[in-house]
């Protein structure tokens, strides 16, 4: 008997292609850098913003699926991946810092997100918290420490646009409340993951510093490009090592 498995409409994957863990970058191009850390890499699908690969990291099967820009497409990815059996998902994204002293390439391990996006609001009342799975966050913290990454643990703000008239004022407001950085997908990933029983975490690589003094900016930008690339490598490795820890703790 031939068993037909359902292909998800956006990610174009079925449960025959799945893995228990998935990295969720926004940018499809980031998959090539992820692939260099995996063995037996298979290209799976590429539909719209959703590009996917599968491979192994220290024997643990892992997928990477890009989610594009914004909470709406990230929520679709979490939904469809959970339907094909993915149990742990870590967003590996880029962010702008909202706190002085967070440098290019520093990581933010997000322990909660301000829900300034539309996607998470369409799911559930805004009093529902956008938080990661505690165990997976701890695994990310332990992995970052073991790798020697510069990592800050704290709150991110997820938004829907860079280009609104009040952008600067809004960033200053949330900076004043102790928020560390801004991205566009973390809140949607946390809320949909929480509602669907998926363990999620989010690791953000700083690509824009916050209101640094000019001399500090000049010093950091001389080495800016390579610092950001190192940050991206570090977030990928931190997430992969966290999945190994999750796999060990569950077996
Ligand atoms: O680098 P990624 O993961 O795409 O993340 C950030 O970059 C994009 C904006 O430039 C948004 O998706 C934002 O969240
Ligand atoms: O400043 C930034 C950089 C990346 N992503 C954001 O959401 N903001």
Description of the structure:
This protein has 251 residues and is α/β, with parallel strands linked by helices. It has one domain (15-250): Nucleoside phosphorylase domain (Rossmann fold, 3-Layer(aba) Sandwich). The protein is built from 8 helices and 9 strands. The protein has helices at residues 30-35, 71-83, 118-123, 134-147, 167-176, 186-196, 214-222, 224-250; strands at residues 21-24, 39-47, 50-57, 60-65, 88-97, 107-115, 151-158, 181-183, 199-208. Strands 5-8-7-6-9 form a 5-stranded mixed β-barrel, surrounded by 4 helices. Helix 4 packs across helix 8. The protein is globular and about 50 Å long. The model has no long low-confidence stretch (mean pLDDT 95). The structure holds 1-O-phosphono-alpha-D-ribofuranose and uracil (URA). 1-O-phosphono-alpha-D-ribofuranose (R1P) is lined by residues 25-27, 69, 93-94, 183-185. Keywords: Glycosyltransferase, Transferase. One of its GO terms (molecular function) is uridine phosphorylase activity. One of its GO terms (biological process) is nucleoside catabolic process. It is an enzyme of class 2 (transferase). Its EC number is 2.4.2.3.
What is the strand content?
25-35%
The oligomerization state is single chain
Mean pLDDT: 95
Number of helical regions: 8
What compounds are bound to the protein?
A: 1-O-phosphono-alpha-D-ribofuranose, uracil
Strand order of the largest sheet: 5-8-7-6-9
Evaluate the radius of gyration: 17 Å
Beginning-to-end CA distance, first to last residue: 32 Å
The tally of structural domains comes to 1
